[in-house]
Request: fold
Amino acid sequence: MKTSEKKDSVRLAAERILDNYMEMSNHRKTPERYAILRAVYSINGHFTLDELGEKLAADYKFPVSRATLYNTLNLFLELRLVIRHRFQGTTKYESSSAGTGHCHQICTVCGKVTEVKVPEVTKAIDETHLKRFRKDGFSIYIYGVCSTCQAAITRKRKKTKE
Reply:
């Protein structure tokens, strides 16, 4: 299966979850909710509320208020269609299609966030048996200094020694 086909399949599954919830809870199936869901699942990686709003306005010609975005993302969090991260004072989101768990490198100098694959960690967590608890996923944050910032720090130190 091609990557685009897989993304479409995951997005359609998310839409079915939303459909079922809306029907079961007697909520309206608004075009805003579905446009936001499509936009969320079209973004690769993390995004802020503002970035999502900009994408909706630019790519989908579907501007929505910040309140609508916030409330809809809270619904998607409840349905576990999106994941929320708090990175050094910034709230970012990502679609649940990003996987059941992954690790993030976070630079404590510039704030850059990079997802890293650590198969050993994934395997260890998958093999961990927890009592009276069902694992749905995980997120690990590794804090440090990225190579770009480390190089800048080294250059600055060399300059001050001269």
Summary: The chain is about 50% helix and 20% strand.
